[in-house]
Specification:
The chain has two domains: about 1-15 and about 85-120; about 20-55 and about 75-80, no CATH class. Helix 1 (about 5-20) packs antiparallel against helix 3. The protein is rod-shaped. By secondary structure, it is mainly α. It has three helices and no strands.
Length: about 120
């Protein structure tokens, strides 16, 4: 419904091509959740426990057994795979086409109004 407006069509096309649209945000969040799953798996493999957010457990052991240390170089790296530019332009093609159509319609309307105008 918003695409009926030329300003909305321009905004949707520009944000899609600039990589700042809502779809890009959802893509990033999906990539971040994927990293979170791989991080949890890594921690489970190294320590045998699942990391819990916002919860701190303090245990007191009399034995000298240390928890396995985690080397920061072994942590999984977050590798963001940006969306393809061709796919972004294909998604923005509808809005660009609507902008071209609006341009033709409004120019034709202005030209017709100019021809009908009586200068006298």
């Amino acid at each position: 419904l918003a695409r009926v407006s030329p300003s909305a069509s321009f905004s949707l096309a520009a944000t899609r091509m600039a990589g700042t649209s809502l779809g890009m945000k959802e893509h990033f969040i999906g990539e971040a959740y994927g990293y979170q799953r791989s991080y949890v798996e890594f921690i489970k493999d190294k320590t045998g426990t699942s990391p819990r957010g916002g919860m701190v457990m303090i245990t007191i052991n009399d034995d000298e057994e240390e928890d396995p240390s985690i080397d920061p170089n072994e942590l999984p790296v977050f590798d963001y795979a940006a969306s393809d530019m061709k796919a972004d332009f294909r998604a923005a093609a509808i809005d660009i086409g609507l902008l071209a159509l609006f341009n033709i319609i409004f120019f034709a309307g202005a030209y017709t109004a100019f021809l009908r105008y009586d200068v006298r």
